[in-house]
Every structure is written in C-alpha cells, then in structure tokens.
Amino acid sequence: MMRPWPLAYRRWRLNLNYQWNALRIVMDWTVMLYIIVPALLLGLKFYYSWWTDAVVIPQQSLFQTLWIYPFFVTIMMSRVRTWSEGGDILFLRQHPVWYETFVRFGLLELAVRQTLLTGALTILLLPWLIRGYHFDTASVIMLSLLAGLIGCLHALVRNQITVRMNGWKRVVWGWIWNVAILLAFRYIIISMLSYLFAGAALAGLLIICIYMLARWRIHVRYTFDRDVDVETGFKMKLTSLLLKQALGKQPRRKRGKKPLLFPHSGYWKQLNTAGERIGAIAVKTMWRSSVHVLFYCQLIGVGMIALFIVTLKAASLLMLVFPVLCAILGYWLNSYWRELVGSEVWKMYTFDVEQVQIGASHFVKVNGILPGMLWGAASGWLISPVAGILYMAGGAVVSAFISNMVMMMRGYKLKEDFKVEAEQS
C-alpha cells in the first residue's frame, strides 16, 4: 500500500501535469511566436541593459518606494493546500495521521513555493535594487526573507479565515486581512531595512507565529469538508479562467433592454456604401463578444506597458516596438475577420469582392484607432503634454495604416472563397 508522503507527492505531480496541459491548450504556435518569444527576448535585453547601463531613479516620492510593490504579488499568491480529496474522508477517519501528513506536505510546498517566488522576484529586481536604489547585500537578503515569511503568514491566516468562516464574513474578513497585511508589509520593510538587527528580530517573531499557526493547521480535522472545496477551487481555477477566456459568458438581458455598445442597428458614424455597412456589422459583432473584447483590451494593456518601459529606457526603440505591436494587432484582427467571414451565417449571403474588401478595411481601421491612441499616449505623455497629443494622433493613424496593410497582405477572404469565385468567373 502506498504511504502518505508518496501519495501526496503523486497528487502534486499530477496537478502540475493537469495545469500544464490546460496551458498548452491556449499556448499554440501563434501565441508562442507573436507574444511569448518576443516578450522573453525583449525582457532579456532589458534585464541585461539594467546591469550594463546606468539605472536612473526619478526623485519623486512615488518612485522612491516603487521597488516594494512587486513583492505584493508574491504575498497575494501565497496559499495553503492540503492535497485532500472528497473520497479520502472514510479512510482518513480511521487513519488521521494520513491527513496530518497531507497538511505537512502542503505546508512544505508553501514554504518552497514562497522561497522560489520571492527569490526569483528578488533576482529580477536586483539591478534596480543595487544600481538604482543602492541597496547593500544584507538589505536585499533581509527584504527577501521578510517578504517570504510574511507571504507564509498571509497564507496561513487567510486559510483560517477561509475554512472557519462562511458567507459575507469570510469575504469581508478576507479583504480586511489582505489590506492589513499589505499595509503592514510596506511599513515594516520601509522602517526596518535601515535597522538590520530589528529586521532579524522581527523575522524570528514571524517564524514563531508561523510555527504556531502551522501546528494548529496540522492537528485540526473538522475543516476537512471545506479543505476539499478549497482544493477543488485551486485545481480548477486556471481551467475555469481559460474557459472564460475562450467561451465567455453570455449576459442575461431583460426584455426590451438595449445593449450598451451599438444599441440595435445604431453606429457611431453615417455609412455611405455597402462595404462600410459590412465593416460596421463586423465591428459591432466583435464589440458585442466579451471574449474578443477582453483579448482586445489585454493586447492594448500589454502594448501600453511595453511602450511605457521602452520610453523610459530608450525612446528610439519606439520606431521598432510600435510597428511590431501594430502588426500583431493587424494579424489578430485579420484572423477574427477571416473567422467571421467563414462562419455559417455569413456563408448564407453572397457579397461582392470589392464590398468585402472595403468592409475588411473599414473593420481593421476602426479597431486600430483606439490601440494606436492609447499606445501613443503611453509613450508621448512621458515626454511632454504636447508630445502626448501628437503621439496619440500619430499613433492612431499609424496603427490604422499598418493594421490595414496586414489585412490586405494576409487576405480578407478565405482561400476557398477565392477558388469558388475563380471557378464562377
């Protein structure tokens, strides 16, 4: 019979395989080629430049404590898992030591995970901490140690709130604890980095608190049902997120209620040709799809962050990064257009080739204006207000132009549609 430690490790390994298979569903070759690989290459370039070039920190008070906020992410990602399943209850009542072993494995996994996350984040921020904020080695080690310990403390207390409270109390106390631990972490780090002895004493006190909470968590058994629910939620969290991204959720509308965007047949401008009407239908179709709008907003957000970082580092790189973002936007809009044209509803109608071309151009230009304006604002407003306005206007024009060029180069209709038209002619 398998012992509890090997069984817990087996469940941990199966969970990793399950999460990886879920990620592989969305990480196809297009995502790897156009998003992940360029992001990794740009990230490595910027990280190398942080070590080789001078890191200049603005003198505003906001930037003086900016280094602390990335550690909030590692604290909020901390969680306690017991690796228990619903079918274990009958066996665990006869062998309670098995359940304690599962909890011990979960606490060990929490400590290892927080150590790796905090260490990786510290290494990522190391050039900024040392060359920009002039941290010494002891301060960096103390910062990483306190961040990891507070992350473990946050996970243990949050787990107690989750398994011991129900309803609105669990939600309210969970939010109160999140805000309190983040504020406490900020105050502790800023106050004690200058006094390493006080930081070491606080680390010892945190270890004692974590030990007491972990000991309680190991020996308590009445939370088993809630632990199983929490485990199921952790396991399915990534899968449910990916399904929402892929399928979306159709909102329930009351009878007679108009949609917020493009109510009924309305549009933001007057349409003069049949091609523009086709393009307007495609625009309204995309904006009424929560899945595509979400990805559209995510693409805009990633582009704004990339251009903001590029402008801070070297404004000359805008000539390279901005067209690449516009090309990615045009590729995605072209993929959506071709999917829309190839749908069963659109195949029921016959459109003129020129009308479809005009509609595709109208669709991609309209949806290229907003990203161009926001991308231009993300870089231009760092330079000056006048440059921000000019960059917004120029970004909208350039984004619409490049997106339209990608649409025309990849084709605005399916290959089989071109074959059918050639045979008919």
Describe the structure.
The protein starts with a helix and ends with a helix. It contains 17 helices and no strands. Helices cover about 80% and strands about 0% of the residues. It is an all-alpha fold and about 425 residues long.
End-to-end Cα distance, whole Å, is 73 Å
Rg computed from alpha carbons, rounded to a whole number of angstroms: 27 Å
Global outline: globular
Helix content: over 70%
What's the helix-strand series? HHHHHHHHHHHHHHHHH
Which percent band covers the strand fraction?
Answer: under 5%
Residue-averaged pLDDT, rounded?
A: 81
What is the number of E strands?
Answer: 0
Quaternary organisation:
single chain
Low-confidence stretches: none
Topology:
Layout: H1 4-26, H2 29-52, H3 61-64, H4 70-76, H5 89-94, H6 96-132, H7 137-164, H8 167-192, H9 196-219, H10 224-247, H11 274-287, H12 290-313, H13 318-341, H14 344-347, H15 353-380, H16 385-410, H17 415-424
Helix pairs in contact: 1-6, 1-10, 4-6, 4-7, 6-7, 6-9, 7-8, 7-9, 11-15, 12-13, 12-15, 13-15, 13-16, 15-16
Essential attributes:
78% helix; globular; mainly alpha; 425 residues
In short:
The protein is mostly helical.
